[in-house]
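in:
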């Protein structure tokens, strides 16, 4: 009896924390999408390409048609995936509007291929900010995206829905790496109020190397723990995971607040 009550409380707590994480994350991603639309989509539509350089002077390079095209496509797709991605996980939408889920899912998966392959071009051919270590780690993130996108669609076609769901959650977290990077970077800045652990000129340093691993690779482990806790009969496993996710959610909330006020709104 007591065992069952414990189990019920753990299930409720687990569900509520997961939902809170989802709401905070989606809101944060919508702010990011708003920034992309207002900065990149708007300036592109108006033909003001130099505005891309308000973030970094090498985003728009006169004469580099291919490089500019890749960057333009990259940020165009970035807004679409950031808005559509989390919606794919909403059960109500999947049940009430399965057609939307299928169409938007296809757009999302093909965009995932596009954004990661385009990102690899930007990283290795055009040259990205940060040092070689960060470039390798974000490239591993691109590979994770490609693998997760492949298996998500494969199992959707085979109607192996449980496997499809699991790969889709792994994919969403891999696709969120770039957003998580900005959020946790701004959390660090909110805490320290100064560039600690990295050189702001070269954008390299131990903090940024650790952050890259933390946001581009580690979330895959968190997803694995999530499914372990979800399918486990042990209330302790659910409690343990929920407390960890609650702390992560609070950190994301503060980081998003910092990113909106200190990074995205001032650039628009
Ligand atoms: C869903 C995933 C992704 C989103 C939403 C995204 C979004 C963005 C955005 C908005 C920018 C413009 C910079 C800014 O205004 O902050 C950007 C630039 C860039 N992205 Fe992505 N991106 C994604 C995935 C990737 C991946 C997987 C790679 C690498 C393999 C990558 C490599 C780059 C590079 C190299 C730049 C130029 C900035 C720099 O020099 O670092 N992106 N991305």
């Amino acid at each position: 009896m007591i065992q069952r009550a414990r189990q019920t409380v753990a299930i409720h707590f687990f569900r509520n924390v997961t939902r809170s994480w989802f709401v905070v994350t989606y809101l944060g991603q919508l702010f990011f999408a708003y920034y992309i639309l207002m900065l990149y989509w708007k300036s592109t539509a108006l033909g003001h390409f130099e505005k891309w350089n308000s973030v970094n002077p090498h985003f728009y390079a006169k004469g580099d048609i291919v490089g500019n095209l890749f960057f333009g496509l990259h940020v165009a797709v970035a807004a679409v995936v950031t808005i559509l991605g989390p919606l794919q996980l909403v059960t109500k939408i999947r049940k009430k509007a399965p057609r939307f889920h299928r169409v938007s899912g296809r757009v999302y998966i093909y965009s995932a291929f596009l954004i990661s392959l385009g990102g690899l071009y930007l990283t290795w051919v055009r040259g990205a900010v940060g040092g070689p270590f960060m470039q390798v780690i974000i490239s591993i993130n691109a590979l994770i995206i490609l693998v997760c996108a492949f298996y998500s669609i494969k199992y959707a076609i085979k109607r192996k829905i449980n496997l499809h769901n699991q790969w889709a959650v792994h994919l969403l977290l891999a696709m969120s790496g770039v957003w998580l990077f900005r959020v946790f970077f701004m959390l660090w800045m909110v805490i320290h109020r100064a560039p600690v652990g990295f050189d702001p000129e070269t954008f390299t340093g131990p903090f940024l190397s650790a952050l890259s691993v933390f946001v581009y690779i580690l979330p895959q482990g968190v997803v694995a723990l999530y499914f372990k806790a979800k399918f486990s009969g042990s209330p302790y496993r659910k409690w343990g995971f929920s407390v960890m996710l609650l702390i992560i959610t609070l950190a994301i909330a503060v980081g998003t607040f910092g990113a909106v006020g200190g990074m995205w709104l001032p650039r628009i």
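note: The chain has a mean pLDDT of 97.
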